[in-house]
Amino acid sequence: MNILLSNDDGFLAPGINLLRKALMETHHVITVAPDRDRSGASNSLTLENPLRLTRQSVDFYSLNGTPTDCVHLALTGLYTDPPDIVISGINAGANLGDDVLYSGTVAAAMEGRYLGYPSIAVSMAHHQPKYFETAVQAVLALLPKIPDYPEDCMILNVNVPDLPWAQIKGFQVTRLGQRHRAEPVIHLQDPRGRDIYWIGPPGKEQDAGEGTDFYAVRNGYISITPLHSDLTRHRALVGTEQWLNT
Question: 99-118: per-residue pLDDT in tens?
Fold first, then answer.
């Protein structure tokens, strides 16, 4: 396959480099990744500053932009032959439930889909994973199935437990769970007495029962959640029309 690979942890991150090495054994891979960690960048594009592409090695580039910038630039300005698929990851840290709204990993996959290509976002369910190779094996297992995927609009959000491959119980198709509201910001002062703030940790699991991505990962399964980019709440259209005309 012809693969575009990106991430949000940066081009030096172990996850993307391990996946790149494995994919290159049997596929043609072009990698465009941020020049530093851009976690939480969501779907942001850089519009007021120029983007600079730096060649790290053959078909491997870093970019002074967001994950969305990386995929957008690659697909609209770098490729001569279009890829078969866009893969984002492997991310260090889960992207479960509400996380997908903020995730640069998922955003890179979404940008691939916006531009017409099937896309996969891959994340490890631990911020300091020991078993990146398990996620590599998950991607390698899924790739042969991609041409037979039954839906036109494909974004798969894949979350992998931080376990050895032999301990993985299998794959589960899931829906997004939901977290409680985020913890408050952390208010501190710098050495000169000026106020500074850190974004607080995400909320704990709330809607995390059977069938959710949270539940699957917690129980040793690789979670696969199909996403779509249409944010319209279709069932509210009629009620909104009635409300507007009242």
Answer: 999 999 999 999 999 999 99
Count CA atoms closer than 13 A to 34's CA, side-chain side: 26
Q: Identify whether the C-beta of residue 119 lies closer than 8 Å to the C-beta of residue 109.
A: yes
Structure tokens that stand for 102 in this block: 């903020």
Distances in Å between the alpha carbon of 10 and those of 37, 65, 105? Answer: 5, 10, 10
Contacts of 231 (CB under 8 A, 6+ apart): none
Token pair of 64 as six digits: 């002074």
What are residue 229's phi and psi, to 5 degrees? -95, -5
81, two tokens: 């032959």
Collapsing DSSP states into helix, strand and coil, what is residue 50? coil
* 14-23 and 132-142 helices, crossing angle to 10°: 40
Could you tell me which of 105, 102, 117 has the C-alpha nearest to residue 149?
117
Other beta carbons less than 10 A from residue 244's beta carbon = 7
Name the CATH superfamily, with its identifier, for domain 2-179+205-244.
Answer: Survival protein SurE-like phosphatase/nucleotidase (3.40.1210.10)
Q: How far apart are CA 7 and CA 1, in angstroms?
A: 19
> pTM for the full model?
0.91
Q: What is the pLDDT of residues 138-152, one digit of tens each?
A: 999 999 999 888 877
Q: Where are the domains of the chain?
A: 2-179+205-244
Cα dist from 98 to 15, 103, 172, 186, 246, whole Å: 22, 9, 19, 21, 34
Looking up tokens 């600079």 gives 52
Residue 128 Cα to chain centre, angstroms: 17
Q: How far is CA 136 from the centre of its chain?
A: 15
Q: How many CB atoms are closer than 10 A to CB 108?
A: 35
